[in-house]
Amino acid sequence: MNHSNSTNSKREWTYHTLWMMGSHGLKLVLQAVYFIVVARKLGAAEYGTFIAASAVAEVVSPFSTLGIGNLMVKNVARDRTLFSLYWGNALVTNLIAGTGLILGLMAIAPLFLPSSISPLLLGLAAVNSLIFSRILDLARMAYQSVSRFDRTAQMNLLPHMLRAGAALLMVSLFPDPNALDWMTMGLLCLGSASIASLVVIHREIGPAKPNLPKLYPELKQGSYFAVGLSAQSIYNDIDKTMLASLASVQATGLYAAAYRLIEVAFVPMRSLLDASYTRFFKAGKTGVQGTWLVARKLLPMMGGYGLVAALGLYFCAPVVPWVLGPEYQMAVPALQWLAPIVLLKGLHYIAADTLTGADLQGYRSLTQIGVALLNIVLNIGLIPRYGWQGAVIASLASDGLLMVLLWLFVALHYGRSTVALES
What is the residue range of 300's domain? Predict the structure, then answer.
């Protein structure tokens, strides 16, 4: 019986992984379409302006849901009857917190952003990142929580299908588009996709039944997720905003284009992580001893792919100007410098999910906060002197340190749990 259950579990995980890999593979193609079209059509300066506005909104975006989406995955994966409660609380939290963050961002961000980023552009970026993108994230997590990975994959694809179509439409409608044109197109795409996701989830999984008094006791744990995700956004995105402020939007565009290719290369690894996320929570009932069993199966695949992807990016980097245009020539060395980040990210995400699944999100979040602060300090010191090279150094140092610290925490808690079992 146990062997049969184990076999079924492996088949189910393989099925989920294939769905997610197929989704992320098609997402990769769609991202390539609109990334190439938009980067070429906008040019490095306008593309840099678009990225800088988007990045500052992304940094605070996790606080627009306060981590309730992650709690939904964790608790619904263990008890399906809790779905309507967590789904409703997540949507209400996003509406209240997201609106407050938009108003705060509009008041504060212009104080440190370059004048090339207009209030309208910033406002659209904030609505995109803090409301519509978060609804789509919650929709994906909703299906993930009930192990509907076919729908998770489709929700993952929906906004990218619309964006690819919007990019092609923008080319035909605007002879000389700017960052505001593309941000507006993105708003229409994400808004349409988020409304569609709400309707489909109501029909297929169940209605939203918010009960905020039941939410309050969990806000502390949810805040760990929000803080951790915000810290993650800082060391992933704040360098682009700081480049625009401390260097130029031209440098931001070049660096952002290179970093975008790093994110594209990470797609297969993200597929494995998404398919395994609920497994970490289920295994985490027994602590790190359980989540480590999931992690060790992923390590060879993630490590092997990460190494191959990093080498591939390094040697294929000279192709970038042929695809994006000659003004992206300096994106070649930027991509070569950034290439190791694919491997570092893959390894640190496994350690991070090992901790999260074992109800040790606090350790993950505190580590991410420390690394995010280090990243800011490094960028402040390095960007004015070295430009995008300084941002690269800060990124490599931050991702490398994060990987080491997270695995140290995994080893520490695994050792403690082993001693506890033996005693």
Answer: 20-422
Q: Does pTM top 0.90 for this prediction? A: no
Per residue in 81-92, pLDDT (tens digit) is: 999 999 999 999
CB 365 within 8 A of CB 227: yes
Per-residue pLDDT at 104 exceeds 80: yes
**138 falls within a domain:** yes
Residue 134 forms part of a structural domain: yes
The torsion defined by the Cα of 15, 25, 239 and 330, in degrees rounded to 10, comes to 150
> What does residue 246 show for φ and ψ, rounded to 5 degrees?
-95, -20
Cα–Cα distance, 356 to 51 (Å, whole number): 30
* Residues 263 and 16: beta-carbon distance below 8 Å: no
Q: Is residue 169 part of a domain?
A: yes
